[in-house]
C-alpha cells in the first residue's frame, strides 16, 4: 500500500515537472519562431537530406547491403511511426497538451491552428527522427555526420514542444523507441547483410551539407514568411 502511494506520488511529481517544462518552452514564442519551428517540424522539407542519405548508401554499398538497409529502415519506421501511433498511443491515452479536452489547453500557444491528434505519447516525430539519427550514426560512423543528425533530431523534438503538441515526456519516450528500434534493426541488418563500415566512403558528408543548406533556407525564410 505504501509503495503504491509512493509510486503514485512520484508519478504525479514527474507529470507536474513535465507540464512545467512544457509550458516554459511553449510560453516563449514570437512570429519569427512560429514560422521557424513550423518549418523545422515539417517532414517534407527534409526530403533533400533524406535523398542525400539514400545517395550515399547507393554510392557506397553493394546490392545485398542496399536491399538489407532499405528493409531495416522500413522496419525502424514501421515501429517508430505505425506501432507508436496506432498501438502505444491509444493504450496509454495521454492527451496532447494542445487537445481541447486537456485542462491546460487554454494556456498552450498554438501555431497555424494545428493541434495534432488526440493522444501524444510517445511522439512519432521524435521516434522517427531519433530512429533515423541512430541508424545513420551506426551505418556511416562519421563523427560530424552523427553530430549533425543528432542535433537535427534535438531541434525537431524542441519544435514539437514549441508548437504545443507534445510534452517533454512524449519526446523522451519517442527518443527511447527510436533508439531501441534502430539498434535492434541495425543488429539484424548487419547479421543479414554482412555489412562492415567502410573507412573510405564516398561523399559521406553530403547529407550534412544538404541538411545545413535546408536549415539555412528555413532560417532566412522565417524572416519574411509568417504562418
What does this structure look like?
The protein has 227 residues and is mainly α. The chain has one domain: Vanadium-containing Chloroperoxidase, domain 1, CATH 1.20.144. It has helices at residues 2-27, 31-41, 47-60, 63-92, 124-140, 143-162, 168-193, 206-224. The longest helix is centred in the middle third of the chain and has 30 residues, at 63-92. The radius of gyration is 19 Å and the shape is globular. The model has no long low-confidence stretch (mean pLDDT 94).
Outline the secondary-structure elements.
Layout: H1 2-27, H2 31-41, H3 47-60, H4 63-92, H5 124-140, H6 143-162, H7 168-193, H8 206-224
Helix pairs in contact: 2-6, 2-8, 3-8, 4-5, 4-7, 5-6, 5-7
User: N- to C-terminal separation?
Assistant: 51 Å
Number of beta-strand segments: 0
Shape: globular
The helix content, as a percent range, equals: over 70%
Instruction: List the uncertain runs.
Output: none
Strand content: under 5%
Class from helix and strand fractions: mainly alpha
- Describe the biggest sheet? none
Outline:
This protein has 227 residues and is mainly α. It contains 8 helices and no strands.
List keywords for this structure.
227 residues, Vanadium-containing Chloroperoxidase, domain 1, mainly alpha, 72% helix
Amino acid at each position: 500500500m505504501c509503495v503504491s502511494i509512493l509510486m503514485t506520488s512520484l508519478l504525479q511529481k514527474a507529470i507536474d515537472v513535465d507540464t512545467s517544462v512544457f509550458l516554459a518552452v511553449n510560453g516563449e514564442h514570437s512570429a519569427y519562431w512560429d514560422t521557424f519551428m513550423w518549418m523545422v517540424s515539417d517532414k517534407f522539407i527534409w526530403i533533400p537530406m533524406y535523398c542525400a542519405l539514400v545517395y550515399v548508401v547507393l554510392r557506397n554499398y553493394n546490392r545485398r547491403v542496399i536491399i538489407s538497409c532499405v528493409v531495416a529502415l522500413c522496419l525502424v519506421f514501421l515501429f517508430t511511426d505505425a506501432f507508436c501511433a496506432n498501438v502505444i498511443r491509444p493504450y496509454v491515452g495521454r492527451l496532447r497538451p494542445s487537445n481541447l479536452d486537456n485542462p491546460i489547453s487554454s494556456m498552450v500557444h498554438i501555431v497555424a491552428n494545428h493541434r495534432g491528434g488526440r493522444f501524444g505519447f510517445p511522439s512519432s516525430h521524435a521516434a522517427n527522427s531519433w530512429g533515423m539519427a541512430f541508424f545513420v550514426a551506426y551505418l556511416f560512423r562519421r563523427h560530424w555526420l552523427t553530430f549533425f543528425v543528432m542535433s537535427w533530431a534535438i531541434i525537431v523534438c524542441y519544435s514539437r514542444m514549441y508548437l504545443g503538441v507534445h510534452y517533454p515526456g512524449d519526446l523522451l519516450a519517442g527518443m527511447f523507441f527510436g533508439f531501441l528500434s534502430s539498434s535492434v534493426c541495425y543488429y539484424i541488418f548487419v547479421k543479414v547483410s554482412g555489412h562492415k563500415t567502410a573507412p573510405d566512403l564516398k561523399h559521406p558528408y553530403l547529407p550534412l551539407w544538404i541538411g545545413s543548406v535546408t536549415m539555412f533556407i528555413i532560417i532566412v525564410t522565417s524572416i519574411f514568411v509568417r504562418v
